[in-house]
Amino acid sequence: LFASVELAPRDPILGLNEAFNADTRATKVNLGVGVYFTDEGKIPLLRAVQAAEQARLEAAAPRGYLPIEGIAAYDKAVQELLFGKDSALLAEGRVVTAQALGGTGALKIGADFIKRLVPDATVAISDPSWENHRALFESAGFPVVNYSYYDAASHGVNFDGMLASLDALPAKSVVVLHACCHNPTGVDLTTEQWKQVVAVCQEKGLIPFLDMAYQGFSDGIDEDGAAVRLFAESGQSFFVSSSFSKSFSLYGERVGAISIVTQNKDESARVLSQVKRVIRTNYSNPPTHGGTVVATVLNSPELRAQWEEELGEMRDRIKLMRTQLVDKLAAAGAGDFTFVKEQRGMFSYSGLTAAQVEVLRAEHGIYAVSTGRICVAALNSRNIDAVAGAIAAVLK
Ligand code: LMR
Protein backbone atom coordinates (compact mmCIF):
# COMPACT_ATOMS: atom_id res chain seq x y z
CA LEU A 1 0.00 0.00 0.00
CA PHE A 2 2.69 2.49 0.93
CA ALA A 3 5.46 1.30 -1.37
CA SER A 4 5.12 4.28 -3.70
CA VAL A 5 4.60 6.93 -1.02
CA GLU A 6 7.17 9.67 -1.41
CA LEU A 7 8.87 11.35 1.50
CA ALA A 8 7.31 14.81 1.87
CA PRO A 9 9.58 17.78 2.51
CA ARG A 10 9.71 19.22 6.02
CA ASP A 11 7.30 22.05 6.73
CA PRO A 12 9.20 25.30 5.99
CA ILE A 13 8.35 26.73 9.43
CA LEU A 14 7.42 23.94 11.84
CA GLY A 15 10.09 21.72 10.26
CA LEU A 16 12.67 24.16 11.63
CA ASN A 17 11.57 23.24 15.16
CA GLU A 18 12.40 19.61 14.42
CA ALA A 19 15.87 20.55 13.20
CA PHE A 20 16.36 22.98 16.10
CA ASN A 21 15.36 20.38 18.70
CA ALA A 22 17.84 17.91 17.22
CA ASP A 23 20.70 20.47 17.38
CA THR A 24 22.93 19.78 20.39
CA ARG A 25 24.70 23.16 20.48
CA ALA A 26 24.02 24.96 23.79
CA THR A 27 24.16 28.37 22.11
CA LYS A 28 21.50 27.59 19.47
CA VAL A 29 18.79 30.24 18.90
CA ASN A 30 15.41 29.58 17.25
CA LEU A 31 14.27 32.62 15.27
CA GLY A 32 12.19 30.40 12.98
CA VAL A 33 8.67 29.78 14.22
CA GLY A 34 6.43 32.72 15.24
CA VAL A 35 6.42 32.30 18.99
CA TYR A 36 6.91 34.97 21.66
CA PHE A 37 9.55 34.20 24.28
CA THR A 38 10.27 36.16 27.45
CA ASP A 39 13.65 37.74 28.10
CA GLU A 40 14.48 34.48 29.94
CA GLY A 41 13.84 32.58 26.70
CA LYS A 42 10.61 30.95 27.93
CA ILE A 43 7.13 30.81 26.40
CA PRO A 44 5.12 32.76 28.99
CA LEU A 45 2.09 31.37 30.80
CA LEU A 46 0.15 34.61 31.21
CA ARG A 47 -1.05 35.48 34.72
CA ALA A 48 -4.58 36.10 33.41
CA VAL A 49 -4.54 32.62 31.83
CA GLN A 50 -3.28 31.03 35.06
CA ALA A 51 -6.11 32.66 37.02
CA ALA A 52 -8.73 31.45 34.53
CA GLU A 53 -7.25 27.94 34.57
CA GLN A 54 -7.31 27.89 38.36
CA ALA A 55 -10.97 28.91 38.35
CA ARG A 56 -11.76 26.18 35.85
CA LEU A 57 -9.98 23.55 37.91
CA GLU A 58 -11.86 24.62 41.03
CA ALA A 59 -15.20 24.51 39.21
CA ALA A 60 -14.46 20.85 38.30
CA ALA A 61 -16.74 21.26 35.28
CA PRO A 62 -17.87 18.15 33.37
CA ARG A 63 -16.43 17.75 29.84
CA GLY A 64 -19.48 17.31 27.65
CA TYR A 65 -19.45 18.06 23.93
CA LEU A 66 -19.47 21.72 23.02
CA PRO A 67 -21.93 23.00 20.43
CA ILE A 68 -20.51 22.57 16.90
CA GLU A 69 -19.80 26.32 16.70
CA GLY A 70 -18.15 26.37 20.14
CA ILE A 71 -18.76 28.25 23.36
CA ALA A 72 -21.32 31.05 22.90
CA ALA A 73 -19.56 33.39 25.36
CA TYR A 74 -16.29 32.79 23.51
CA ASP A 75 -17.76 33.48 20.08
CA LYS A 76 -19.34 36.70 21.36
CA ALA A 77 -16.08 37.84 22.97
CA VAL A 78 -14.24 37.19 19.70
CA GLN A 79 -16.76 39.30 17.81
CA GLU A 80 -16.36 42.19 20.21
CA LEU A 81 -12.58 42.09 19.97
CA LEU A 82 -12.64 42.06 16.18
CA PHE A 83 -15.49 44.43 15.42
CA GLY A 84 -15.71 46.51 18.62
CA LYS A 85 -18.31 46.19 21.37
CA ASP A 86 -20.58 48.82 19.80
CA SER A 87 -20.41 47.48 16.25
CA ALA A 88 -23.61 48.01 14.25
CA LEU A 89 -22.96 44.69 12.49
CA LEU A 90 -23.15 42.83 15.79
CA ALA A 91 -26.35 44.64 16.78
CA GLU A 92 -27.87 43.68 13.42
CA GLY A 93 -26.88 40.00 13.76
CA ARG A 94 -24.68 40.20 10.68
CA VAL A 95 -21.65 38.34 12.06
CA VAL A 96 -21.45 34.56 12.31
CA THR A 97 -18.60 33.27 14.50
CA ALA A 98 -17.49 29.72 15.20
CA GLN A 99 -14.69 28.61 17.50
CA ALA A 100 -11.90 26.99 15.48
CA LEU A 101 -8.66 25.06 15.95
CA GLY A 102 -6.36 28.07 15.90
CA GLY A 103 -6.08 30.52 13.03
CA THR A 104 -5.13 27.68 10.68
CA GLY A 105 -8.29 25.78 11.57
CA ALA A 106 -10.32 28.93 10.98
CA LEU A 107 -8.77 29.42 7.55
CA LYS A 108 -9.57 25.82 6.65
CA ILE A 109 -13.23 26.10 7.73
CA GLY A 110 -13.54 29.30 5.69
CA ALA A 111 -11.78 27.71 2.70
CA ASP A 112 -13.99 24.59 2.75
CA PHE A 113 -17.13 26.71 3.03
CA ILE A 114 -16.10 28.97 0.13
CA LYS A 115 -15.30 25.89 -1.95
CA ARG A 116 -18.95 24.82 -1.62
CA LEU A 117 -20.16 28.33 -2.34
CA VAL A 118 -17.89 29.37 -5.24
CA PRO A 119 -16.19 26.18 -6.45
CA ASP A 120 -14.35 27.88 -9.31
CA ALA A 121 -12.89 30.74 -7.30
CA THR A 122 -9.22 31.66 -7.46
CA VAL A 123 -7.47 32.55 -4.22
CA ALA A 124 -4.97 35.45 -4.19
CA ILE A 125 -2.36 35.71 -1.46
CA SER A 126 0.27 38.38 -0.91
CA ASP A 127 3.73 38.05 -2.43
CA PRO A 128 5.17 36.88 -0.11
CA SER A 129 2.74 35.39 2.41
CA TRP A 130 2.70 32.97 5.29
CA GLU A 131 3.93 29.71 3.74
CA ASN A 132 0.86 27.77 4.86
CA HIS A 133 -1.64 30.08 3.10
CA ARG A 134 -0.84 28.66 -0.32
CA ALA A 135 -0.68 25.06 0.88
CA LEU A 136 -3.93 25.37 2.82
CA PHE A 137 -6.01 26.89 0.02
CA GLU A 138 -4.51 24.54 -2.56
CA SER A 139 -5.39 21.58 -0.40
CA ALA A 140 -8.93 22.94 -0.17
CA GLY A 141 -8.99 22.68 -3.99
CA PHE A 142 -8.35 26.25 -5.14
CA PRO A 143 -5.82 27.59 -7.61
CA VAL A 144 -3.67 30.09 -5.68
CA VAL A 145 -2.06 33.16 -7.25
CA ASN A 146 0.01 36.01 -5.78
CA TYR A 147 -0.84 39.69 -5.64
CA SER A 148 2.07 42.15 -5.47
CA TYR A 149 2.87 43.23 -1.96
CA TYR A 150 6.43 43.56 -0.71
CA ASP A 151 8.96 45.91 -2.27
CA ALA A 152 12.41 44.70 -1.25
CA ALA A 153 14.18 47.86 -2.43
CA SER A 154 12.22 50.16 -0.12
CA HIS A 155 11.47 47.56 2.56
CA GLY A 156 7.88 48.73 2.12
CA VAL A 157 4.71 47.92 0.20
CA ASN A 158 4.51 48.08 -3.58
CA PHE A 159 1.08 49.60 -3.21
CA ASP A 160 0.48 50.53 -6.84
CA GLY A 161 1.40 46.98 -7.78
CA MET A 162 -0.91 45.60 -5.13
CA LEU A 163 -3.88 47.66 -6.34
CA ALA A 164 -3.19 46.71 -9.95
CA SER A 165 -3.07 43.00 -9.05
CA LEU A 166 -6.31 43.17 -7.09
CA ASP A 167 -7.97 45.15 -9.85
CA ALA A 168 -7.08 42.44 -12.38
CA LEU A 169 -8.66 39.59 -10.40
CA PRO A 170 -11.94 38.13 -11.64
CA ALA A 171 -15.04 38.83 -9.51
CA LYS A 172 -15.51 36.38 -6.62
CA SER A 173 -11.80 35.76 -6.26
CA VAL A 174 -10.81 35.27 -2.65
CA VAL A 175 -8.26 37.85 -1.45
CA VAL A 176 -6.34 36.78 1.65
CA LEU A 177 -5.22 39.89 3.53
CA HIS A 178 -3.09 40.11 6.67
CA ALA A 179 -5.18 42.35 8.94
CA CYS A 180 -2.10 43.48 10.91
CA CYS A 181 1.51 42.45 11.53
CA HIS A 182 2.05 41.02 8.04
CA ASN A 183 3.62 37.57 8.11
CA PRO A 184 6.42 37.26 6.97
CA THR A 185 7.45 40.85 6.17
CA GLY A 186 6.23 42.86 9.18
CA VAL A 187 5.19 45.55 6.67
CA ASP A 188 1.59 46.76 7.01
CA LEU A 189 -0.69 49.02 4.99
CA THR A 190 -1.55 52.52 6.22
CA THR A 191 -5.17 53.40 7.00
CA GLU A 192 -5.40 55.32 3.72
CA GLN A 193 -4.13 52.32 1.80
CA TRP A 194 -6.59 50.01 3.58
CA LYS A 195 -9.43 52.30 2.49
CA GLN A 196 -8.36 51.86 -1.12
CA VAL A 197 -8.10 48.08 -0.75
CA VAL A 198 -11.58 47.99 0.78
CA ALA A 199 -12.88 50.01 -2.18
CA VAL A 200 -11.25 47.75 -4.81
CA CYS A 201 -12.65 44.64 -3.15
CA GLN A 202 -16.09 46.19 -3.17
CA GLU A 203 -15.97 47.51 -6.73
CA LYS A 204 -14.62 44.28 -8.16
CA GLY A 205 -16.88 41.98 -6.12
CA LEU A 206 -13.93 40.14 -4.53
CA ILE A 207 -14.22 37.97 -1.42
CA PRO A 208 -11.99 39.50 1.28
CA PHE A 209 -10.56 37.01 3.78
CA LEU A 210 -8.74 38.81 6.57
CA ASP A 211 -6.27 36.76 8.56
CA MET A 212 -5.79 38.23 12.02
CA ALA A 213 -3.29 36.17 14.00
CA TYR A 214 -1.51 38.98 15.83
CA GLN A 215 -4.13 41.39 17.15
CA GLY A 216 -2.50 43.50 19.85
CA PHE A 217 1.10 42.98 18.70
CA SER A 218 1.41 46.16 16.65
CA ASP A 219 -0.24 49.10 18.46
CA GLY A 220 -3.11 47.71 20.56
CA ILE A 221 -6.33 45.72 20.36
CA ASP A 222 -8.51 48.37 18.74
CA GLU A 223 -5.74 49.94 16.67
CA ASP A 224 -4.82 46.55 15.19
CA GLY A 225 -8.49 45.88 14.39
CA ALA A 226 -8.65 48.94 12.12
CA ALA A 227 -8.67 46.98 8.84
CA VAL A 228 -11.51 44.73 10.05
CA ARG A 229 -13.49 47.81 11.09
CA LEU A 230 -12.97 49.48 7.69
CA PHE A 231 -14.27 46.41 5.90
CA ALA A 232 -17.19 46.29 8.36
CA GLU A 233 -18.10 49.92 7.60
CA SER A 234 -18.05 49.27 3.85
CA GLY A 235 -21.08 46.98 4.07
CA GLN A 236 -19.57 44.12 2.06
CA SER A 237 -19.55 40.48 3.11
CA PHE A 238 -16.18 39.10 4.20
CA PHE A 239 -14.33 36.51 6.27
CA VAL A 240 -12.02 36.91 9.26
CA SER A 241 -9.86 34.14 10.71
CA SER A 242 -8.46 34.99 14.13
CA SER A 243 -6.23 33.35 16.68
CA PHE A 244 -5.31 33.59 20.35
CA SER A 245 -2.18 31.48 19.98
CA LYS A 246 0.08 34.51 20.20
CA SER A 247 -1.97 37.08 22.08
CA PHE A 248 -2.80 34.65 24.92
CA SER A 249 0.39 32.60 24.55
CA LEU A 250 -1.85 29.54 24.12
CA TYR A 251 -0.10 28.06 21.08
CA GLY A 252 -0.74 24.41 21.92
CA GLU A 253 -4.39 24.85 22.87
CA ARG A 254 -5.43 25.74 19.29
CA VAL A 255 -7.80 28.59 20.10
CA GLY A 256 -9.06 30.54 17.11
CA ALA A 257 -12.26 31.53 15.35
CA ILE A 258 -13.82 32.03 11.95
CA SER A 259 -16.10 35.05 11.65
CA ILE A 260 -18.21 35.73 8.57
CA VAL A 261 -19.94 39.03 7.86
CA THR A 262 -23.25 38.61 6.05
CA GLN A 263 -25.87 41.03 4.74
CA ASN A 264 -28.60 40.28 7.27
CA LYS A 265 -29.78 38.06 10.10
CA ASP A 266 -31.48 35.61 7.80
CA GLU A 267 -28.27 35.07 5.79
CA SER A 268 -26.40 34.64 9.07
CA ALA A 269 -28.66 31.76 10.12
CA ARG A 270 -28.17 30.00 6.79
CA VAL A 271 -24.40 30.63 6.71
CA LEU A 272 -24.00 29.33 10.27
CA SER A 273 -25.90 26.15 9.36
CA GLN A 274 -23.41 25.49 6.52
CA VAL A 275 -20.35 26.33 8.61
CA LYS A 276 -21.57 23.82 11.17
CA ARG A 277 -21.72 21.14 8.48
CA VAL A 278 -18.12 21.88 7.51
CA ILE A 279 -16.98 21.62 11.13
CA ARG A 280 -19.01 18.51 11.88
CA THR A 281 -17.49 16.61 8.97
CA ASN A 282 -13.95 17.69 9.87
CA TYR A 283 -13.64 17.32 13.66
CA SER A 284 -17.22 17.41 14.97
CA ASN A 285 -16.87 20.17 17.56
CA PRO A 286 -14.05 22.10 19.22
CA PRO A 287 -12.21 21.28 22.47
CA THR A 288 -13.22 22.95 25.72
CA HIS A 289 -10.09 24.11 27.51
CA GLY A 290 -8.60 26.97 25.50
CA GLY A 291 -11.95 28.45 24.58
CA THR A 292 -13.13 28.39 28.19
CA VAL A 293 -9.93 30.08 29.39
CA VAL A 294 -10.09 32.83 26.78
CA ALA A 295 -13.81 33.43 27.36
CA THR A 296 -13.24 33.64 31.12
CA VAL A 297 -10.47 36.21 30.69
CA LEU A 298 -12.30 38.33 28.13
CA ASN A 299 -15.55 38.34 30.10
CA SER A 300 -14.00 39.29 33.45
CA PRO A 301 -13.11 43.00 33.75
CA GLU A 302 -10.17 42.26 36.10
CA LEU A 303 -8.67 39.44 34.06
CA ARG A 304 -9.23 41.32 30.85
CA ALA A 305 -7.32 44.32 32.23
CA GLN A 306 -4.53 42.02 33.34
CA TRP A 307 -4.38 40.35 29.94
CA GLU A 308 -4.19 43.70 28.16
CA GLU A 309 -1.33 44.69 30.43
CA GLU A 310 0.53 41.45 29.70
CA LEU A 311 -0.12 41.80 25.97
CA GLY A 312 1.27 45.34 26.20
CA GLU A 313 4.40 44.00 27.91
CA MET A 314 4.95 41.51 25.07
CA ARG A 315 4.42 44.24 22.48
CA ASP A 316 6.84 46.61 24.20
CA ARG A 317 9.53 43.97 24.60
CA ILE A 318 9.38 43.13 20.89
CA LYS A 319 9.80 46.82 20.05
CA LEU A 320 12.78 47.03 22.41
CA MET A 321 14.36 44.04 20.67
CA ARG A 322 13.85 45.71 17.29
CA THR A 323 15.63 48.87 18.44
CA GLN A 324 18.47 46.96 20.05
CA LEU A 325 18.93 44.70 17.05
CA VAL A 326 19.20 47.71 14.74
CA ASP A 327 21.78 49.35 17.04
CA LYS A 328 23.80 46.19 17.53
CA LEU A 329 23.82 45.38 13.81
CA ALA A 330 25.09 48.88 13.08
CA ALA A 331 27.75 48.57 15.79
CA ALA A 332 28.83 45.19 14.38
CA GLY A 333 29.29 46.77 10.95
CA ALA A 334 26.36 44.94 9.32
CA GLY A 335 24.96 48.14 7.82
CA ASP A 336 21.76 50.13 8.17
CA PHE A 337 18.85 48.01 9.37
CA THR A 338 16.67 50.94 10.50
CA PHE A 339 13.75 49.47 8.55
CA VAL A 340 13.48 46.74 11.19
CA LYS A 341 12.12 49.37 13.60
CA GLU A 342 9.30 50.24 11.20
CA GLN A 343 8.14 46.64 10.83
CA ARG A 344 5.23 45.49 13.00
CA GLY A 345 4.50 42.34 14.96
CA MET A 346 6.75 39.36 15.59
CA PHE A 347 8.59 39.17 12.32
CA SER A 348 11.27 40.92 10.40
CA TYR A 349 12.00 40.28 6.78
CA SER A 350 15.72 40.69 7.25
CA GLY A 351 16.78 40.64 3.62
CA LEU A 352 19.06 37.65 4.28
CA THR A 353 19.19 35.18 1.39
CA ALA A 354 18.47 31.46 1.72
CA ALA A 355 22.22 30.79 1.45
CA GLN A 356 22.99 33.27 4.25
CA VAL A 357 20.25 31.73 6.42
CA GLU A 358 21.88 28.34 5.87
CA VAL A 359 25.28 29.67 7.01
CA LEU A 360 23.59 31.19 10.09
CA ARG A 361 22.26 27.76 10.96
CA ALA A 362 25.29 25.67 10.07
CA GLU A 363 28.00 27.90 11.52
CA HIS A 364 26.22 29.84 14.26
CA GLY A 365 23.31 27.62 15.35
CA ILE A 366 20.83 30.39 14.58
CA TYR A 367 17.63 29.21 12.90
CA ALA A 368 15.55 31.44 10.60
CA VAL A 369 13.08 30.76 7.79
CA SER A 370 14.87 30.34 4.45
CA THR A 371 13.10 33.44 3.09
CA GLY A 372 15.09 35.53 5.57
CA ARG A 373 12.20 35.93 8.01
CA ILE A 374 13.37 36.15 11.60
CA CYS A 375 11.17 36.09 14.68
CA VAL A 376 12.18 39.21 16.63
CA ALA A 377 10.02 38.01 19.55
CA ALA A 378 12.56 35.24 20.20
CA LEU A 379 15.43 37.68 20.77
CA ASN A 380 16.44 38.41 24.34
CA SER A 381 19.16 40.17 26.30
CA ARG A 382 21.22 36.98 26.35
CA ASN A 383 21.12 35.99 22.69
CA ILE A 384 20.87 39.33 20.86
CA ASP A 385 24.62 40.06 20.81
CA ALA A 386 25.36 36.64 19.35
CA VAL A 387 22.58 37.04 16.76
CA ALA A 388 23.76 40.52 15.68
CA GLY A 389 27.35 39.30 15.51
CA ALA A 390 26.40 36.25 13.46
CA ILE A 391 24.30 38.27 11.00
CA ALA A 392 27.17 40.73 10.60
CA ALA A 393 29.55 37.82 9.98
CA VAL A 394 27.41 36.21 7.27
CA LEU A 395 26.97 39.55 5.52
CA LYS A 396 30.73 40.19 5.30
C1 LMR B 1 4.51 31.23 12.01
O1 LMR B 1 4.29 31.79 10.94
O2 LMR B 1 5.65 30.95 12.39
C2 LMR B 1 3.36 30.89 12.92
O3 LMR B 1 2.18 31.37 12.39
C3 LMR B 1 3.33 29.47 13.27
C4 LMR B 1 2.86 28.61 12.15
O4 LMR B 1 1.89 27.89 12.35
O5 LMR B 1 3.46 28.64 11.06
Any guess at the CATH architecture of the largest domain?
3-Layer(aba) Sandwich
CA(first)-CA(last) distance: 51 Å
How would you sum up the global shape? globular
Gyration radius (Cα, Å) is: 21 Å
Say which CATH homologous superfamily of the largest domain is assigned: Type I PLP-dependent aspartate aminotransferase-like (Major domain)
Please write the CATH class name of the largest domain: Alpha Beta
> Uncertain runs with pLDDT below 50, 5 residues or more?
none
What strand line-up does the widest sheet have?
2-10-9-8-7-3-4
How many helices? 16
Helix content: 40-55%
Count all strands and give the number: 13
Structural class: alpha/beta
SS strand fraction: 5-15%
What is the third-level CATH name, the topology of the largest domain? Answer: Aspartate Aminotransferase, domain 2
Return the domain count: 2
Largest sheet: 7 strands, mixed
Unique ligands: (2S)-2-hydroxybutanedioic acid
Q: Write down the overall mean pLDDT.
A: 97
Provide keyphrases for this structure.
Aspartate Aminotransferase, domain 1; single chain; globular; NHTrfase_class1_PyrdxlP-BS; 2 domains; transferase; 47% helix; alpha/beta; 16 helices; 396 residues; binds (2S)-2-hydroxybutanedioic acid; Aspartate Aminotransferase, domain 2; Asp_trans; 13 strands
Walk me through this protein's architecture:
The chain contains 16 helices and 13 strands. It has 396 residues and is α/β, with parallel strands linked by helices. The chain folds into two domains: 125 residues, Aspartate Aminotransferase, domain 1 (Alpha-Beta Complex); 234 residues, Aspartate Aminotransferase, domain 2, CATH 3.40.640. α5 packs across α11. The longest helix has 31 residues. The radius of gyration is 21 Å and the shape is globular. The termini are far apart. The site of (2S)-2-hydroxybutanedioic acid has 6 residues, from loops. It comes from Crenobacter cavernae. This is Aminotransferase. One of its GO terms (molecular function) is transaminase activity.
